[in-house]
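Re-run requested by the PI after the first attempt was lost when the workstation crashed. Everything re-entered from the original request form. Ligand of interest: zinc ion.
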Amino acid sequence: MKILKIDHLGIAVSSIDEKKNFWTDALGLNLEGTETVEEQKVTTAFLPVGESEVELLESTSKDGPIAKYIEKRGEGIQHVAFRVENIEQALSELKEKGIALIDQTPRKGAGGAKIAFLHPKATSGVLVELCER
Ligand code: ZN
């Protein structure tokens, strides 16, 4: 398995519209538009930071994973995403190593990426996303 870089930090916010100003105005990052991924009940906004990005995540529904996260822990960093060269290979390698996975096979993420989440019980409580683009 080859990890290429930290692809993005996923940050849960109650509203992209209301919370984006810190990232755009105060930090001067560029918001490249938003995208809704219906299967995950989430709207995402990507803001490039050098080689990586900040991903703001807003729930599209009260029972979505981001809504539940904010209810439990408040807004904040929800996941760390590593870009891998080959996501299928990475998942099968992790499975062989006995790492608990949320996604056994990749699913579709924002921007046409293939993504998969590892289980936080395997990662000291950090939700880790693998992504391939
Ligand atoms: Zn992500």
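Saved to the shared folder this time. The chain has one domain: 3-132.
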